[in-house]
Every structure is written in C-alpha cells, then in structure tokens.
Amino acid sequence: MLTKLSNRIYYLPNNTDTDRPALGYIAGNQYALMIDAGNSSKHVQLFTQQLAHANLAYPNFVGITHWHWDHTYGLSSIDAVSIACRLTNAELIKMSKWCWDDEAMHQRLQDGSDIEFCSDMIIKEYPNRKEICIKPADIVFEDELKLDLGGITCEIKRIGGPHSEDSVIYYITEEKTVFLGDCTYEDLYYGNLFYRDKLKTLIDYLKTLDFEICIQGHCIHQSKKALLQDLENELAQSV
Ligand SMILES: [Zn+2]
C-alpha cells in the first residue's frame, strides 16, 4: 500500500520477497516525480495502480538513486522522462548489453560483475528473463540537478558514500524530506574498502542537511534523529 507522508509526498514500501526497494512519489502543481524505477514491469505496475487508486497523476519524471538492478530494471516500463547521474547511466549502458541466459549469468558471477544475492533475486522476480530490458536515462547530470515541480522543489545530488559511488539523494526542500536510496548501506558488490571513512563522511553530511523525514531504499521511513542514531551505532560497531 502506498504510504502518504504529506499531501505532496508518498512512497510504496519495499518488499523483501524479490528485494523490491521503496518507490517514491512527489506531487508538484505541474509535474510529478517518481523516485527509483523498481525492479521490473510488475513492480512498476503495482506502483502505478496504487497511484491511480489514490487519484494521483502518472509521473512525468522518474529519477534513479543508483545503478543496482532493483532500482533500475523497471525503467523501460515507465512512460516518463528518466533522470540519472553520469556514473549511474554508464552502468545502465553497460548492463543494457547483458544477456540473461544461464551461462551469461553464471559468467558474471565468476568475473564479479554480478553477485549471488542479486542474481538469485532476479531469477525469482523474472520467471521469463527474456523480459528484462535495461534502458539508459533520458537526462544525465554530473553531480547536481534541481527540479521545480511546481510549488515544490527537488534537489538531486550525488553524494556517493559507502553503498555505491553513484549514490544520489532526492531532497525535497519545502517538505524537509529526503529519499536516500541505499546510500547508507554497505557495498555488496565491491566490498567495504574505506567503509568507516565513507560512513563517517556521510553521517557528517546528513547532520548538516535540514530534513525531518528520510526514506531509505529497503526499510520504512524514519526521523532524522532515528536515522543518525542507527548510523552512529553502525559506525561504532564497524572496524
Ligand atoms: Zn543498492
């Protein structure tokens, strides 16, 4: 079910069955923005059905938080202008050439371009992997982009961090709300080199950002205080 955070901000919560992340929705007076594209056309369909049910307009834009499959493979099923940072888009272009037969998937596990957890989840989400179609973004930015949706602004900013170098956050200024994608999590693909330093830098940045509510990729929304408490605990436990 779509969760309403305000008259302007909604999200569809994550689902761990096939590792579907939370999908965000920002309703401006002129344009609507979807945050993250979901992991498949079925995921997108669930989201757009929920929007229709809540009498919310189909999104005009869809912004990606980072390149991982669960946040991007739904892109080809969304009839909206897509936005990604350059680093994310480079990965989308690379993945758009991937084959999905058993042999190609096995080969990617061998050479490290994919990981077992994601590979297993892709098999679960896609009974027919011929349906997988990875599409690069329409609008590509380097580090920052500001979207005026009409009466509400979204500041899109690449912050990198421990999870992935291309991690981008979507900060809705007027509502003091930020969609973080997976930027606070560990890096499942390339290991946790400099994890502590990256996490510390991220915590320092988030402390300075003026927000009250945040939505992470794979859990329900939290207050700034609760998020920072979790991250400080994580930092204290890391070596
Ligand atoms: Zn991720």
Tally of discrete structural domains = 1
Q: H/E order of the elements?
A: EEEEHEHEHHHEEEEEHEEH
Q: What does the main sheet amount to?
A: 7 strands, mixed
Q: Please state how the strands of the largest beta sheet are arranged side by side.
A: 1-2-3-4-5-6-7
Radius of gyration: 17 Å
The CATH top-level class label: Alpha Beta
Strand content: 15-25%
CATH architecture: 4-Layer Sandwich
> How far is it from the N-terminal to the C-terminal residue, by CA?
38 Å
Task: List segments where confidence is low: pLDDT < 50 over at least 5 consecutive residues.
Answer: none
Name the helicity range.
25-40%
The number of E-state strands comes to 13
Structure description:
The protein has helices at 41-53, 69-72, 86-95, 102-111, 116-125, 195-208, 224-237; strands spanning 3-4, 9-12, 23-27, 32-35, 61-63, 81-85, 139-141, 144-148, 153-158, 168-172, 177-181, 213-216, 222-223. The protein has a seven-stranded mixed sheet with strand order 1-2-3-4-5-6-7. The protein starts with a strand and ends with a helix. The chain has a single domain, classed as Metallo-beta-lactamase, Chain A (4-Layer Sandwich). It is α/β, with parallel strands linked by helices and 239 residues long. α6 (195-208) links the parallel β11 and β12. The structure holds zinc ion (ZN). Zinc ion binds at residues 66, 68, 163, 182.
